[in-house]
Write a structure and sequence with these properties.
The chain is mainly alpha-helical. The chain has helices at residues 2-29, 39-74, 88-113, 123-151, 153-164, 167-187, 193-212, 214-220, 228-255, 260-265. The radius of gyration is 22 Å and the shape is globular.
């Protein structure tokens, strides 16, 4: 009976993490009204982010943390303290530097992997969103399972809900922006856009993590412990607002992309007003 209950709880947590990510994917897909991407392709991209990028990122981050901790122990001192994964500086270095660079690179690899399926410029951010949302789904499920094991089903569901309105959106948005840059390099010959938009994705990721960690950052900088919960709450609200603003910007990017035939028919597109020269005066009869 216990095994059956555990399986049911796992299914509930999986659905709770999966459904918001798929709803967001549908939301992004609908931004491109002409030539919608086939669901089969989007789900393959989604699975790439979920089962490929997430697992590899976790392994690489674990290796880097262990290697950094070994270096900091062999060469003790302030110069290498940020490499110690067990220290406060090491935690911030992981969250604000290592994780954004590694995770965005692995999610970007999914967009590049499916280059042959791109048909136009607007496909880049849609592909990126699909990979990022898949990554966000599986990462959120793993966090939810951890909370479930320590605090029960309600704790797991609450954490999944919180991450579904914040980090899942961020992962989709940051990789979508990389996808835009990569598509520009493919279709417009802009050789620097892939690298510049990758750095933009990293910056978005790091900024979101900084907001979500505001309480811990405030404590590390000497803010009294009594104020730390307020800083954490403000940071959480800011992180959620940042995530929703980012995904809305992605939808605008898709809508107003350099695919003019799609943009002209999209209801959210507002074509520029073109002024015409006045014609000759009409002669009155």
């Amino acid at each position: 009976m216990g095994d059956v209950g555990a399986i049911e709880d796992f299914l509930i947590l999986t659905l709770a993490a999966l459904l918001p990510a798929l709803i967001y994917l549908l939301w992004v897909r609908q931004s491109e009204r002409l030539g919608l991407e086939p669901w089969g392709l989007l789900l393959r991209l989604f699975l790439y982010g979920a089962l490929g990028a997430t697992i590899i990122a976790a392994i690489l981050e674990l290796i880097i943390v262990d290697l950094g901790s070994a270096i900091s122990q062999k060469y003790p001192g302030p110069d290498f303290s940020f490499l110690n994964g067990g220290s406060t500086a090491g935690t911030f270095f992981l969250v604000l530097v290592i994780a954004p660079f590694i995770e965005e690179a692995l999610k970007a690899s999914g967009v590049i992997q499916y280059k042959s399926s791109m048909r136009r410029l607007a496909d880049g951010p849609v592909f990126g969103a699909a990979v990022g949302l898949g990554f966000g789904f599986f990462e959120t499920l793993l966090y939810g399972l951890g909370a479930f094991l320590t605090g029960g089903l309600v704790a797991g569901l609450l954490l999944i809900l919180l991450r579904s309105i914040s980090s899942v959106l961020l992962h989709g948005s940051s990789t979508a922006m990389f996808g835009r840059g990569y598509a520009q390099s493919v279709y417009q010959g802009n050789t620097t856009s892939t690298a510049s938009y990758y750095l933009l994705a990293v910056a978005m990721h790091a900024s979101f993590n900084a907001l979500a960690s505001l309480g811990a950052i405030a404590t590390a900088f000497g803010v009294p412990n009594a104020w730390a919960p307020y800083a954490a709450f403000v940071g959480l609200l800011a992180a959620i607002g940042f995530a929703f603003a980012a995904i809305e910007h992605v939808r605008d990017v898709i809508t107003q992309s350099d695919y003019p035939s799609a943009a002209r028919v999209h209801p959210r597109y507002r074509p520029p007003q073109v002024r015409t020269a006045p014609g000759p005066p009409q002669r009155r009869s």
